[in-house]
Amino acid sequence: MKRVISVFVALTMIVSAFAFASTNASAVDYNPQSALDYAEENWDNGIELCAGFVSNCLQAGGINVMERSVGNLFNALKGTYGTAHVLKTDGPYIYFDDNAGKLSPGDPVFYYCNSCKSFQHAILCGDGEDGLMTDYAHNNPHHNTTTYISWGCPECGDINWTMYSISLSSTSNHVHSYTKTVTKKATCSSTGIDTYICACGHSYNVTTPKTEHTAVWVYSERPSVYNTGLKHMECSVCHKTISTPSLVAKSTADVNGDGKVNSADALLILRYSIGFNELISSQTAFLNADVNGDGKVNSADALIVLRISIGVLSI
Predict the structure, then answer these.
(1) CA gyration radius, the chain
(2) What residues contact 141, with CB distance under 8 A and at least 6 apart?
(3) Quick one: pLDDT at residue 175?
(4) What residues contact 171, with CB distance under 8 A and at least 6 apart?
(5) Per residue in 77-126, pLDDT tens?
(6) Which SS3 state, helix, strand or coil, does residue 310 take?
(7) Do 29 and 62 contact (CB within 8 A), yes or no?
(8) 3-state secondary structure 245-281
(9) Contact 99, 87 (CB under 8 A)
(10) Rounded distance between C-alpha atoms, residue 138 and residue 143, angstroms
(11) pLDDT over 50 at 279, yes or no
């Protein structure tokens, strides 16, 4: 009889140990995507307050818990299903990068009021946006919207929160390591998007600012030996005008800058027109060589310079 009792006690201990191990391993079997799918479908169904809603989300992900008190839900999850962490905040926001290994989509997050010394609100961490935590919640329904911690406690009115997470989807102590991919390149007319992707599948997007305009001078009226010109500055990419028009002096026809207009200037123009571009390298020299104001430097300009040099044409 004693032997039977001993065997029974041993079996009971083995079964109990197995049950305890199963309970503590349940977080490993947690499917955060299933919890998020439930939240996406039921964020505004009006069933349950915040703790009950988060409990339903966690049940959809495979954790058998149902608590309608925020504090009770936190205590039921802590240690048994995951690790509790104090989250780092930045102003009114929570960033994933600041909380690597502590926060992942599908984890429950809790607002603890330091003034009341009590838990006041429970939410489910969403997929994030621009590196910021987002959440699903009831009471004040949230649909994967940015998490804010700048609102007052419903009990005392103070803004004095400590934010806790229960890390369920990172029970293997996985720390995210992201690789950046440029999803959309920023330009001077539109913002860009950089996507950060971890090998575990978690990703988030960061909006990158517009680039600076690439300013170039554009001639609305080119100068010649006969008339002044007009120019303005615009972006060579988006063609936005970024300066008011300004006058451009007449062409002097003095291409080599020696203070004279003669055959030497005409020769420079002819040599430039057949490919010796280094002879007229500055914008000022080009304008002085483009004496007819057509935007080109060629034999037509050389002929005008020669006519000026022998007095047939005065400027």
Answers:
(1) 37
(2) 43, 44
(3) 61
(4) 27, 28, 30, 82, 83
(5) 998 888 999 999 999 999 999 999 899 999 999 999 999 999 999 999 99
(6) coil
(7) yes
(8) CEEECCCCCCCCCCCCCCHHHHHHHHHHHCCCHHHCC
(9) yes
(10) 9
(11) yes
Q: How far apart are CA 135 and CA 50, in angstroms?
A: 12
Output the pLDDT for position 278. Answer: 85
CB–CB of 288/304 below 8 Å?
Answer: no
State the pLDDT at residue 26.
Answer: 40
* 147 neighbors 154 (Cβ within 8 angstroms): no
Locate 212 and state its tokens: 């600076």
Residue type, 178: Y
Instruction: Catalogue the E-assigned strands of the chain.
Output: 83-86, 108-113, 118-125, 134-137, 142-146, 161-167, 178-184, 192-198, 203-208, 215-221, 229-235, 246-248
State the number of CA atoms in the 13 A half-sphere of 207 facing the CB. 8
* DSSP helix/strand/coil, 87: coil
In the structure, what pLDDT confidence band is assigned to residue 284 with cuts at 50, 70 and 90?
Answer: confident
Judge contact between 159 and 152, C-beta under 8 A.
Answer: yes
Query: How far apart are alpha carbons 107 and 226 in whole angstroms?
Result: 76
Q: Which amino acid is at 177?
A: S
List, as own/partner pairs, every contact residues 187-192 make where C-beta atoms lie below 8 angstroms and the sequence separation is at least 24, other chains included. 187/211, 187/237, 187/238, 188/212, 188/213, 188/214, 188/235, 188/237, 188/238, 188/240, 189/237, 189/238, 189/240
Mean pLDDT across the stretch 35-59?
93
Which is it for the CA torsion 108, 111, 114, 117, positive or negative? negative
Residue found by looking up tokens 């300066």 in the block:
243
- pLDDT > 70 fraction of the chain, expressed in percent and rounded: 87
Angle subtended at Cα 22 by Cα 21 and Cα 27, rounded to the nearest 5 degrees: 105
Provide mean pLDDT across the span 270-285: 87
